[in-house]
Amino acid sequence: MRKLNTLLFLLLVLAFQQGKAQTKIIPVVNFKSLSTYIQPSADTLKIVNFWATWCHPCVEEMKYFKEAGDNYANQKVKFIFVSLDYKSKKDHVEEFWEKNKIKGDIYILDDNPNIWINQVDSSWGGEIPYTLIVSSNGKQIKINRALKNYKDLQSLINNNLTK
Description:
single chain; 163 residues; alpha/beta; Glutaredoxin; 6 helices; 6 strands; globular
């Protein structure tokens, strides 16, 4: 019986370790690194969402981004999520991301907001959620509010997607 308990314990530890290995590792970046990812791309619409796990409206609108990620998977749309959670909360962000299975690239931004916010949008005060749409021709649309529903996001994507 003792050998069986030991074997079961070892199997549980192994299963736990395999589950941890599958967890997405989210890079922690500074704004200079992040800015290279959000530059216009020749044929891809980029949707950049600034959010945090502690922000209720941010978490609420993630369901719209999940649906959009599923619906636009075969189109030239790239989703980039920038978490403003502290890097000490990285495990919490990774747990949220793994649980919700949202498609797109995710980063934790660890930089002084007083430096980078004006570089994103000089009229932005840093409130989140904040979404930046960058078209392939460099046109930017700035949404300084929570999205109302999926159709709100879908309309923004469809109106800016290169045909």
